[in-house]
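Readers of this paper often ask what the protein records in our data store actually look like. Below, we set out a record of this kind in full and without editing:
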Amino acid sequence: MNIGLPLKTFSLGLVVSFCLFAGTAAQAARVNDKAPNFNLKDLNGHKVTLDELKGNAVILNFWSTTCPPCIAEIPGLNTLYRDMRAKGLIVLGIAIDSSEKPVREQANRLKIEYPVLLDSEKNVYFDTFGLFGQPVSILIDRSGIVRDKLIGQLDWNSAQIKGKVQKLLKGR
């Protein structure tokens, strides 16, 4: 029995898939690059476009309802948003769940005050920002430049994080 041809075809498929994936990841947003634009719908069905938020400091917080550290950091993110939105801070919670229902239920339960967007296909998460793991937050300054990528659960009310947000609000 000769399995050479199917094995070569399978191997070629893996190489092509890896190259396509690597090419996508290589184009992902990096710190000190302009944040790539995206369009996502919020829980009310309204389209939100990142470019429309230019002039504000923006935190993109990628999370899911099945991620305990994601859920644990939301109350602190709510407080930060409440304290700094009048100064020009916008927080967007970007849920990467495949279904809207658990996101809506969790947002209601946690009383999330900032907009929650749906990235059920994970296009913004994987392709646009090249992210892995959760939670992950992207900090974007007022001029639309990615200033930091923060991985893991954060204390959004710590002096260190508040200092980072103050820099964003100052445009750097």
User: Anything to note?
Assistant: The longest helix spans residues 4-26.
